[in-house]
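User: Design a sequence. Structure:
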């Protein structure tokens, strides 16, 4: 099988599987318990917190473990219920749909923009957004500023008119990511995009900014996220983080993976009539591991199924939209062209991807596109 759907889920790394297997035996206890096995489990969680914090330029106390990026996104957006929320149609549905539900007209205002897009790989310059947020004067009064700790101390010490959240799910490990340098207040992460387990994620919340827990009813995560600690999952996340940190994976993506991605792009454009790219390959403009391409008069889902039958695994739009016949909201927002959106395929690479994967794709893809274009009701000359 040629697996080119890493942006949907990266297969778990062998190191992750080993670490989780060992953790099932060693860190089985409830990490909130006061006994020794409980402490053992909690120590491992705190280690994971330190590693993630150091990797992204945060303090360990600014990291909250969650069930994934969707929960992290929901938590930040819902913190700003009733407030102005500025986001883009290119965001993940967990941002767009939550913002549509809870946004209001009060200050402070939340800006939520992802650094790198999951469908096209496009990288956004967050500098302008951070600058816009800084220009908004803090409101004199806001319910968001009023939360206090058990000791009556105000929890929100950083009172501003604008705050910035960024979904860094796709960026982590692929390009250098530092929340301090980005100047953001909240950031979202997910373990299964970096070779860790599905169902584990994290949220960076800068010290002193507004925060409302999404899941209440437990003292875990400093009362910021209730629920028994998912120790084994967090240990898996830790193993994936250690690997990407130690091998400086963003450097490998920038060289090896970029070269593969660009080679596939070049061959597609050269060898397949009616093909075009939805990803800007200029270094710095997109993640090095994502290539989104469209094929005139060929439908994305059909291409995906034919490729699947040949053992080549890719995605159309985003996996989260699977079963949904609407064209990708990201490509619609980016291109405004339903045909381009309907005929798009995302190839996403990992560190295990090889030149022979590209050979295999190019052995079968031109024939598949030609066959689909022949039976299409849209004539090629019209394009
Ligand atoms: N945000 C982005 C940018 C994503 O790519 C994804 C995964 N499709 C998510 C959020 C949701 O992640 P999770 O599966 O961890 O909830």
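Assistant: Done.
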């Amino acid at each position: 099988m040629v697996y080119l759907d890493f942006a949907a889920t990266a297969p778990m790394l062998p190191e992750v599987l080993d670490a989780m297997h060992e953790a099932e035996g060693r860190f089985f206890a409830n990490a909130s318990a006061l006994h020794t096995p409980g402490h053992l489990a909690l120590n491992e969680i705190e280690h994971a917190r330190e590693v993630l914090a150091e990797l992204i330029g945060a303090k360990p106390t600014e990291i909250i473990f969650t069930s994934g990026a969707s929960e992290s996104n929901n938590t930040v957006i819902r913190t700003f219920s009733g407030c102005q929320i500025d986001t883009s149609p290119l965001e993940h549905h967990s941002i767009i749909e939550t913002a549509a539900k809870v946004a209001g007209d009060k200050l402070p205002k939340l800006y939520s923009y992802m650094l790198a897009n999951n469908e096209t790989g496009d990288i956004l310059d967050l500098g302008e957004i951070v600058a816009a947020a800084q220009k908004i004067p803090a409101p004199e009064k806001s319910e968001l500023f009023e939360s206090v700790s058990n000791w009556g101390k105000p929890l929100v010490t950083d009172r501003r008119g604008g705050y910035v959240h960024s979904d860094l799910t796709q960026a982590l490990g692929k390009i250098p990511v530092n929340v301090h340098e980005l100047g953001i207040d909240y950031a979202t992460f997910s373990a299964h995009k970096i070779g860790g387990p599905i169902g584990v994620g994290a949220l960076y919340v800068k010290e002193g900014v507004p925060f409302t827990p999404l899941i209440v009813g437990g003292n875990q995560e400093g009362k910021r996220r209730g629920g028994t600690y998912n120790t084994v999952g967090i240990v898996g996340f830790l193993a994936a983080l250690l690997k990407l940190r130690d091998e400086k994976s963003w450097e490998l993506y920038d060289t090896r993976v970029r070269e593969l991605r660009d080679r596939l792009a070049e061959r597609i454009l050269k060898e397949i009539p009616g093909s075009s790219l939805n990803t800007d390959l200029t270094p710095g403009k997109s993640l090095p591991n994502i290539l989104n391409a469209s094929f005139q008069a060929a439908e994305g889902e059909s291409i995906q199924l034919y490729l699947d039958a040949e053992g080549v695994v890719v995605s159309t739009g985003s996996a989260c939209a699977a079963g949904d016949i609407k064209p990708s909201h990201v490509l619609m927002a980016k291109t405004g062209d339903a045909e381009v959106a309907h005929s798009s395929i995302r190839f996403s690479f990992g560190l295990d991807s090889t030149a022979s994967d590209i050979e295999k794709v190019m052995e079968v893809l031109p024939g598949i596109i030609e066959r689909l274009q022949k039976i299409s009701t849209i004539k090629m000359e019209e394009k």
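Residues 14-247 form a domain with the Aspartate Aminotransferase; domain 2 fold (CATH 3.40.640.10). The pocket of 4'-deoxy-4'-aminopyridoxal-5'-phosphate is lined by residues 68-70, 92, 94, 114, 118, 167, 169-170, 190, 201, 318, 320 (CB under 6 Å).
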